[in-house]
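A favour, since you know our structure tokens better than I do. Go ahead and set the record down below.
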Amino acid sequence: MPPALSDESPAVQTLRGWRSAFSSVVAALSSTAAHAPENAAYGLMAMAPLGAAFGPLAMGLALLGAALASATASLLGGGRLALDAGAALALLTAGLVAALLPHLPSGAGSAAGLGVLLLVTLGIVAAGLLQMLLGLLRVGGLVKFTPYPVRVGLSTGVGLLLVTGAWPAFTGHTFGANGAGQMPLPAGTLVGATALAVAALAAWKHWKLPPIIAGLAAATLLHHTLAAAGWGAGLGPRVDVPALPADWFGGVDAWRAAQAALAQPAVWVLLGAYALTTAVIASLDTLLAASIVDGRLGTRRNADRELVVQGCANLVSAAVGGLPASPSIPASVGLVMQRPEQRHIVLFYAAALLAVLLAAPVLLGLLPASAVGGVLVFLGLSMVSATLWKTPLEVWRSRFGRQPVAAAQHLRWHLLAANWAVTVAVTVAALALGLGPAVLIGASCAVLMFVRANLRDVVRTAWRGNLRHSRKTRAPALAAALRAQGGAIVVLELQGALFFGTADALRERLAVLSADADTVILDLHQVGEIDVTAARILCETAAEWKAAGRRLVFAEWGAHDPRRGLMESFAHDSGSAELCFDDSADRALELAEDALLHRLHVERDDGVLGLAETMVARGLDAEELALLRSAMTPCFFARGDLLFRAGDPGDAWYLSLRGEIGLRLPGTRRRLASFAPGVIVGELSVLAQERRSADAVAESDVTALAMSAEAFDRLLQSHPQLAAKLMRNIALHLGDRVRNLTGDLAVWVSRASALG
């Protein structure tokens, strides 16, 4: 019999290599099936002003540019980022092409189209160089600080422009046709609507089949079925077969046309604005995609280096006449989820795009234009943010609702309204003025919003657990252990807004803390807002900490807080680990201290103290102890029982012998202090003969001695020497409490000023 193959044998290793390669090819082909038609359509839209005759060349160059740019980025960068033309860059290029045409020499004929292609190539080269410069100067990361409302406005504007650009094809006509001047073709519109509906259903029901493939397959089947039934006249055209140019950048006439246009200063202004806008949009896409992919994989990449690489990728795309490219989040995430261990899976994707273009371009020619238009309308509508209509409704309910709203809530709604106004302004600018002016307006809004809310570090203060303790008074041995080992607990008080830039900076800071901290508590009391990107980053960070055996705790957002709801919803939808929230930062700190003491094996003495071991009995002789005990009444409180409520008469004070007693603000669970055995509570209202100012609750089973106000008065009158010792001990006890609370005073004052 032949020897058994071991895991170390070359045959097994070869078999595994072939299996891995086969899986990568399958993943690349499935992604290509979804995104090759999309890239071809972006090429049609970008070059639509040149006319239908330029369509095959536009599709071929768009596919070629995307394939080579993806391969370049994978080889030189962090990998796993699949590039395509993208809706924003395609629409931006279409605007440039339309603006350049009037500057070409009259009578240039067919050379005008290739002359425009040369000018666009020059603009893409400038954009790539700018992107590289941003990375080399290490300032590209500033793009991450684009506020969420600006990004939502740009995304929504791009989505609506994409719907507008795809509408002619959706209704049965060709890309670039005048949709407003032509009546929809019924059969063609039905095909487009089918593609839109099936893609939307696939996304809603989370089908394993990607929405774009599902929509294209269903609409193409319907198109050919209707054609076979004799409805061909009303179906509209099919997409042209992509082709590559015979003379790559045209002949002498094309170069002369481009040179004549460059002699005009207005053309340089157009190219400069295009290059700058393209660099900004591509950089933002790069950083967003890299953050999402790295978050899914638990890895980190150098953002500045990635910008340099993406700039190189755009230079390669420009060298072959392709469109500007930027990472596609759907394509990149799709490849990563299928082959997370394969760093260069994008190379297989690039090869598949080239195979479609060079070996089987006719496959794209089988697709109806209305089907491609339908999936583009789906993509455009999916980019439109629901905040456009949800935020005004929420603000209206807050402003005119019947339920009273706290001042802090009013402040939050004012922030929402201001952010909504920024989103609408950027969206309207994109629709009315184009993406270039919209980016400029968005940048201006970003600067203003940054100055308003984000000049300060998101981390207001940082505390180690050996310096800041919870309000729970502990036994001396436990307190000493926390002072020695409490540095493993960190409390970060955050402020301002959490969005892409601030959350990413916070993640980097947490990565440094993970070296020596077991638990980090994020006090979110002064965080006014959080966007989806920040929620994603924090959820991914929490999952990384949990996987490493550490805890990341989010404190001060209650169960019904919408900001907490956003994070929990994202964690649920993405399948991340359950987040750890606590309504109170002090409570979270106490639990972290308990966990640390448990790990340190520091035993807590749960026995009952004797009266002589308590602070009130310090310095008393045996006769005085007996007198004191005879004046007090033993009592027991189960966990959660109230010793007294705020507003009750000060009829007694209590001396705990076992268990902890907490003081809370009236009507809340907000704790003022927690006292270990041996401490008295309620003495101030007895001495001042006033009503209680706080609630006292048993935080565990409590055994105590109660001294009534009457018994205390009799003891003071009948035994003045004993009374003097008791008053001295009570004064020392109050001094200890003042010292323990001094450390928290700054926190409470800062919170009060923030709410005011």
Remarks:
- Residues 23-381 form one domain.
